[in-house]
Design a protein that fits this description.
Blueprint lengths: L1 H22 L8 E5 L2 H4 L20 H8 L16 H14 L4 E5 L2 H4 L10 H16 L3 E7 L5 H4 L9 H16 L5 E6 L1 H9 L14 H23 L1 H4 L2 E13 L7 H18 L5 H13 L12 H7 L5 E14 L14 E4 L5 E2 L6 E2 L1 H14 L5 E6 L10 H20 L4 E7 L18 E3 L8 E3 L1 H12 L19
Parallel strand pairs: 1-2, 1-11, 2-3, 3-4, 4-5, 5-6, 6-10, 10-11
Antiparallel strand pairs: 6-7, 8-9, 12-13
This protein binds 2-acetamido-2-deoxy-beta-D-glucopyranose (NAG) (5 copies).
The site of one 2-acetamido-2-deoxy-beta-D-glucopyranose (NAG) has 6 residues, from loops.
Amino acid sequence: MDCYFVALIICLVLATVSCCDIVKLTFPSGFRFGAATASYQIEGAWNVSVDTFYHFPDKGENVWDYWTHNYPGYIADGTNGDIACDSYHKYEEDVQLLKSAGLDFYRFSISWSRVLPTGFTNVISEDGLQYYKNLTAELVANGIEPIVTIYHWDHPQVIEDMGGWTNELMVDWFVDYARVLFEALGDTVKKWITINEPRSFCLLGYEDTQKAPGKVISGIGAYLCMHNVLKAHGKTYRMYDEEFRDVQQGVIGMAFSLITILSANSSDTVSADVGFQFEVGWNTHPIYIGDYPEIMKTRVAMISEAQGYPRSRLPELTDDWIAIINGSSDFFGANLYTSVLASPDPDEELGIYNSDSGIILEANSSWSRAASSWLYVYPPGFGYTLRQIRDYYDNPPVWITENGYSDKGELEDYDRISYFYDYLRELLIALKRDGCDIRGYAIWSLMDNFEWQDGIADKFGIYSVDFDDPARTRSSKLSTAWWARVTSTRKLQAVPTNSNARIKLPWE
Ligand SMILES: *[C@@H]1O[C@H](CO)[C@@H](O)[C@H](O)[C@H]1NC(C)=O
Ligand SMILES: *[C@@H]1O[C@H](CO)[C@@H](O)[C@H](O)[C@H]1NC(C)=O
Ligand SMILES: *[C@@H]1O[C@H](CO)[C@@H](O)[C@H](O)[C@H]1NC(C)=O
Ligand SMILES: *[C@@H]1O[C@H](CO)[C@@H](O)[C@H](O)[C@H]1NC(C)=O
Ligand SMILES: *[C@@H]1O[C@H](CO)[C@@H](O)[C@H](O)[C@H]1NC(C)=O
């Protein structure tokens, strides 16, 4: 009996020691919190100024301007980003929003056609650049680090007229554009994200009408798009190495579109991994391992042949390109929100190929869903995928570049706070128990904004924006106050049970 009790006490002590660090739910010193946005979703001012020398609009039309103006039927509520949150005029207030929530960094993106109205570097808009200089200066003056996304889906329409991401010339046009930004902002900006979520815009913009440019090039468009994205990213990384890194000492990565893929049948040890390689490895393997996943190369070649194509629809990375792309990343940017279950497509036994992966992905019907149709809540999936990145890519430094929850705009956003709590708890376990090298976390999003094909009805902000008000007044939500407590204590906070906690903004 005595022995039993001693053993029990020893077990309890051991269990407490190994878990209490996590149970306390504190973040390591040096862990950074921020919020993210994207230019087209918040800036507005789509046609803001006229160049006094050339006498043409000093902000070029981009693919999202063109798409929403010409095909509003593809946007759930027919809205567009002409005004959006009007952040072009309200950036000083936006910096105060970040400061009130106690955030350490702001991840925002730059509008290519605002900086280069013709799409090319023959004309550089001084106003356009000045806007981003003003914004970064305002951030720094308030102790907030700028983290810049060079491209978040809004390339100039003139470039799309020439094929956009399906044209390999895009690679050099992108590098030219990035160079202008390094030159103009690289003294203050030390963290760069080249391209946001290629998987999303390659699949939904070049094989579907969910995102601009809405070209349906089935089976080919997305692979070609990703191929050129990888080249543009790799070449930009090498250009920074050669021309800027010594002096500017910054870091460069990409924000990948991740999705947690779990097995639908616990005795199926294959499908979830195949799904991961097709959905995630497609983008991350070339950068971290040097080439597309073997299974992708094999299956796409086999199915292309069965379909009568003379060569694989998945382009090949040559040795020269592999040398440029392999290892072109200083950190792993993870945009991660949702999970799916993978199972084999039963049609394949009949020789019918419905997809290149041969895998069916569906949500577990028992998971709850956010307002967005694609966003299912399954917190353990978050930790699972963080460990998967650790194992696949030799534990790279990870920044969560996006994570968040959509609702219909409730100011008492308890569901959003619960989501943050559960996902951040998984993050802490991955970091402290499992040794994942996670450096920071960006909330998607700082404020409600134009949510692409979903218009302005689905809202992700920790601040609300009144889109009926020409002044686009911002208000805090319950989650703002919750975040302010997390950032001031550096500790996860319980989900509140009443709404007294709302914080006041400086101008209220
Ligand atoms: C800019 O676009 C708005 C619509 O968003 C339009 O009313 C206005 O006339 C345009 N301004 C210029 C200078 O083209
Ligand atoms: C940048 O800031 C200056 C000084 O506050 C202001 O006059 C100018 O309008 C701003 N420019 C832009 C494009 O925001
Ligand atoms: C779906 O979710 C339920 C409830 O969490 C769980 O019991 C079940 O195992 C899940 N199914 C799969 C295939 O993961
Ligand atoms: C799960 O997989 C096993 C092994 O392949 C198979 O025997 C079983 O029928 C599957 N279960 C379901 C529910 O599909
Ligand atoms: C990519 O780089 C790593 C590390 O240098 C190397 O081990 C690997 O072989 C390279 N991959 C390819 C396909 O060359």
